[in-house]
Amino acid sequence: MWEYRPPVADMLYLMTQVLDAPASWSELPAFEGLDADTAREVLEQAGRFAADVLAPTNAPGDLAGCTWSPESVTTPAGFPQAYRAFVDGGWPALACAPEAGGQGLPQLLNAALYEMLTAANHAWTMYPGLLHGAYEVLLHHAVPELRERYLQKVASGEWLATMNLTEPQAGSDLGLVRTKAEPVEGAAAANGVPVRLSGNKIFISGGDHDLTDNIVHLVLCRLPDAPPGTKGLSLAIAPKFLPDGSRNAVFCDGIEKKMGIKGSATCQMRFEQAQGWLVGEPNRGLAAMFLMMNAARLHVGMQGLGHLEAATQNAWRYAAERVQMRAARRPPGATGGAADPIAWHPAMRRTLLTLQARTDACRTLAYFTAMLLDESEQHPIPQRRESAAQAVSFLTPIAKALFTELGHRSADEALQVWGGYGFVHEFGIEQTVRDSRIALIYEGTNEIQAIDLVMRKVLDDGGQRSRALRARLKEECQACGATLGTVPYGHALAAQLNLWSRAEEALLDGAAADPEWPLRVADDFLMLVSHALMAWAWARIARSALDPALAPVAGGRSALQWLAAAQFGQEWLLPQAQVHAARVLQRDAALPFV
Amino acid sequence: MWEYRPPVADMLYLMTQVLDAPASWSELPAFEGLDADTAREVLEQAGRFAADVLAPTNAPGDLAGCTWSPESVTTPAGFPQAYRAFVDGGWPALACAPEAGGQGLPQLLNAALYEMLTAANHAWTMYPGLLHGAYEVLLHHAVPELRERYLQKVASGEWLATMNLTEPQAGSDLGLVRTKAEPVEGAAAANGVPVRLSGNKIFISGGDHDLTDNIVHLVLCRLPDAPPGTKGLSLAIAPKFLPDGSRNAVFCDGIEKKMGIKGSATCQMRFEQAQGWLVGEPNRGLAAMFLMMNAARLHVGMQGLGHLEAATQNAWRYAAERVQMRAARRPPGATGGAADPIAWHPAMRRTLLTLQARTDACRTLAYFTAMLLDESEQHPIPQRRESAAQAVSFLTPIAKALFTELGHRSADEALQVWGGYGFVHEFGIEQTVRDSRIALIYEGTNEIQAIDLVMRKVLDDGGQRSRALRARLKEECQACGATLGTVPYGHALAAQLNLWSRAEEALLDGAAADPEWPLRVADDFLMLVSHALMAWAWARIARSALDPALAPVAGGRSALQWLAAAQFGQEWLLPQAQVHAARVLQRDAALPFV
Fold this sequence. Notes:
By secondary structure, chain A is an alpha+beta fold. The first copy, chain A, contains 19 helices and nine strands. In chain A, strands 3, 4, 5, 6, 7, 8 and 9 form a seven-stranded mixed beta sheet that branches. In chain A, strands 1-2 form a two-stranded antiparallel sheet. In chain A, 59% of the residues are buried.
């Protein structure tokens, strides 16, 4: 049966040994007292919450779904209790500043927390999922009075927050947003002024629910006489209950019947001259929202990783237990009867190692990105903050698109391990397939991530931040030497970096002649870079696993097991990069209108 | 909103012009009177049934599912009525022999029929899905008395049939089947003797339902003292109601809660000393069952094609209607406002052309295989029957694995076209994703198809039938010449056939040294051959589209549209074959036990 065992030992091995996070923390004054033991304690506690409190509500929550009535939305049994335990444990404020009542821990640990929460119950995790983004928006853009009123409530999770962007006609294209914000009593529009909000929003996660006494909506809207398009968007805050305790005119008119995350209420919202206040400067709402969206994109990437881990560990367990047919070959020393564990059959070994290699690489990249995020926020040297921020801005669309793509695709491939049982709800994996699908869409579809990468992160600065990151990754080639053991990790990584570099040159060259061309191959460019990043992760893991001073932490996988997955990734998964490179480089391939 | 418009014009174009089925029919006495006009009439009628009767029950059937009680299984509203219309229309007997009350039409038309039925409602199509296989088993293996009693009822669809193979411990490994068959009153086991059946079966599609008065179960079982493994399996028939009208001791103990095809009752069956009769020789049950399974595998391939078509046509329609953002480039002569149809955006054009190119190639290959099947059954010259049968046996596992893989993956990729709406039930595509998933598993998982291809269809005859098929496909290189228009179809096809040939040489060479090696790369070999076959299909389509004598049939796509998809497939999709070839050819890549 499906279960979730938090991979704390794997997480710690990657954090503390492969990526040496403690050395990085020692450079950041905010994390001065933090060491590997504290990190372990935080992760173990988070793991217990995910496994013991959340995971048991996952399958029942999928079957029950949410219930809507004109007055309220009821979440599945156990969801409110789990949320109260989450708030009581102080988890929402993990990475918030101590001044706002937070614990001031790194984004790295917050990312690991959300990986575990999603793996245990994605639907439930949607409710607190936007808290940190809302916290950042209020911290940086709200006037003091609004910060005073809402910041601590949101940091602590006492009130939940939503992000009201999408409208029926405005999905990927937020320039089409129509929701109106009219300053009250004809006041001039300015940060903090009260407004009346009118309009309809769709796909609002947690737009209504029974988890908290109040809900804080952040609403993308348009002031009177605002310019058309995205340059005329403003941001406002509108709580479900107003400061005087009265009900605001924010209504949930229904919830969607969805493929997955059925325990998450996806709401149709109606603002009927609702009371709100501007957050940030008029017509600068998208910039403020982007602060939330960037955090949200990395967060969605962690959801993909959570599903990847859940699929991987469950597939390994099932494949070890299920026996069918004799294997053509058995592990050294093993004996067997009429049928062997399917984990011994070559087709299943391939699937299992594919899943494991992806999980290890994506988690390494996720933590690498989160560490850079911490550096960008906390490093005492401004240039270090800036260069880290540049790297994060490059890695964020990749983390979002790559992890969610591999999370969903891996769950779908893992399902095959169960055969017919995989199609049956009680075995759990089919829910992972369904739940994981949404992450390729929301917070900017993966296609939009690829466009963001190519247009804004490569073409806009002539490839500068991309080259800087490549130079950094290239150090691993030298560190690995020609081979590690018998495997040419350094060579393979160099080849991947070279492909990336060639493809990028082609992009920079070709964009001038044909401005549409980069858009035609954006998806391939993102996947090409992704393979180079995974090659780097596997090389780095292999180097740690072969270093006798860095034996895997107690309770985790053996060095040999880490090596097996890294070598498999390098030999079986990297060839895919050639296809993406070929598509980017064949500049004259037709893509007609039909 | 999701709808299904039977692609009759596309079907006819491929059948009658690209593959010239009428020329083939003229060689087969059984189809002497058949011409393109008759085929059109059959397909149009079938299309009306699929679109007007079946498709409206698809989404409601998914929401309602089946209802189980100890006495019976109730199918969703409209299912029984649709089934009666299906029987009244004579559809079950389309490809059955006139002697058995059938219409004696080609398997080709039957395949096209089932493509349309699945596209319109996969869950419903599960019920009649095994009729033709059961018909073949009874026709070829049952003693006259049983044939007399059951053949016509099954051929006409008056009674539905099931295939009882799987047991909890015996999924892919049928050698582990335990269900017992004891000859009544100690009679010697022989074809046709009455037996008592005892055991439990799972995953029995249509094991119980309210569509027909009686249900005919074909049951894989084991006689007393039978040898262990697959060589001790026998086949028996056991009806729900016995000839005297009494209820047989065959019970449905429950139905599965599944990811998809929720309107199809997936039953747990219990045989309690149920009355049955052997069909075929004792201990030769698997051979008899394989007759049914091979037909079933091609049938499942057609399900994949049905989903592929449904996803493709719905994605095209939605992408033409939905407007978001300005496109970087517009079609020649087009103007637009603040936002353009998403079909103009490069990322969506790629998805849409990917879907269309796959659909066209798979349908061409499906019809090619079905025409060979007709030839193998009906050609007057024994050598022609034999060589066609060899080709069919090679193509069947590919059709099953390739079409179902692309059907599901394409539905999943198509969902992205809808953005957030794709995740919502009422837009239909998420149901296609869920429904299509099972086809990668049942009738032998796709991994088992790959093993079948490599071990039994290539290694067993030293590559003989594979070479024969390649030689046949190679004729298309000459027919295409160096280029068609500006596109080197012939060259690309030759390169694909060469890759296939090299990979096959490597397989034949390497299998002796390392018997496990072919199993490690079986999936890649199947996909490598699949790409060569698709290259052949695109070349053939392009040649027809460029032939002024073969303009597409009225009401269908223009020659330019066929060419656009073929060229896209050739330029954007064929590079993937390189990855599969690289994996097959890198013979020393590790695949350790972990």
